[in-house]
Amino acid sequence: MSAQVPEFVVIGHACQDILPGGGRALGGSVSYAAMTAHRLGYRVGIVTSTGPELDAARAFPYAQVIDHPAAATTVFENIYAAGQRTQFLHQRAEVLTCEQVPPAWRRAPLIYIGAIAQEIDLSVFHCFANGVLIGVMPQGFFRQWDGQGRVSFTDWQPTPEVLRRINVLVISEADVIDPEQRAREWGHYTESTIVTHAERGATVYQADGQCHYPTRPAREVDPTGAGDIFAAAFLIRLAESGDPCQAAPFANAVASFSVEGRGVESIPWREQVEAYLEGEGRFLLTLQ
């Protein structure tokens, strides 16, 4: 693996998801955001924490990996009944701090913070050089768990100091109560706050107003990771174009292709996305 400084650094726990039929699959925001950046043409770096059950360097052969050793890898289990999901956190790796981020990586152009289990220390938000674009998918900050590991919602109230460090904050309407109100409030501090609405697209909130962007119709097979895929693609296209009006349709298209398969292998390559937006999806670039 090249020793060059990564262009896209992802911070958070790589985890193992217990599958309904038995066995485990690689999961976590890290997995989906990192593969998205890779397939969009970026050098990827990962800062994570795993235990002996997971070889992070082998799991992410396309990336440079800094793996903080832990006694155990983060493990989630999702149980579905009558259309409702019950989630369990069986074990968790170590909290990640600024100290685990190599000094050279703190100047990487793009930083993605993907929390899944309260594993990101607040020092991480203040770790990076001025001018670095920071994207955050905060679903893990909205999770708490009891003694049996059963996960439930908990409120997250980031301080203005934390929010001012965030350039792109993506929240799903499925993760929080009244996401639109939070987006309007947090939008006073962040550059762009986005609420994702699954197949209904995404709404971008900025200081001068809000715009809704529809998505490409998709044949959904598995929506797991779509929020992280959207957020990573939005951050990348925003950095390239400087324009959220281009970033949102691009990210919607990337995420829509990803749900048509299972796991990270369904994430599209850049050529597929650009061909769609230049062809039948070009109208999405003009709708707001």
What does this structure look like?
The chain has 288 residues and is an alpha/beta fold. It has one domain (8-280): 3-Layer(aba) Sandwich (UDP-N-acetylmuramoyl-L-alanine:D-glutamate ligase), CATH 3.40.1190. The protein contains 7 helices and 15 strands. The chain has helices at 29-39, 56-59, 160-163, 179-186, 226-241, 244-258, 270-278, and strands at 8-11, 15-18, 24-27, 44-50, 63-69, 74-81, 84-91, 110-114, 133-137, 143-145, 151-153, 168-172, 192-196, 202-206, 209-213. The chain has a 9-stranded mixed sheet, sandwiched between helices. Strands 3-2-6-7 form a 4-stranded mixed sheet. A two-stranded antiparallel sheet has the order 10-11. Helix 5 runs antiparallel to helix 6 and helix 6 packs across helix 7 (270-278). The longest helix is centred in the C-terminal third of the chain and has 16 residues, at 226-241.
Q: What name does CATH use for the topology? A: UDP-N-acetylmuramoyl-L-alanine:D-glutamate ligase
Helix and strand content put the structural class at alpha/beta
Beta-strand percentage? 25-35%
Helical residue percent band? 10-25%
Give a concise summary:
This protein is of the alpha/beta class. It contains 7 helices and 15 strands.
SSE topology sketch:
Elements: E1 8-11, E2 15-18, E3 24-27, H1 29-39, E4 44-50, H2 56-59, E5 63-69, E6 74-81, E7 84-91, E8 110-114, E9 133-137, E10 143-145, E11 151-153, H3 160-163, E12 168-172, H4 179-186, E13 192-196, E14 202-206, E15 209-213, H5 226-241, H6 244-258, H7 270-278
Parallel strand pairs: 1-4, 1-8, 2-6, 4-5, 8-9, 9-12, 12-13
Antiparallel strand pairs: 2-3, 6-7, 10-11, 13-14, 14-15
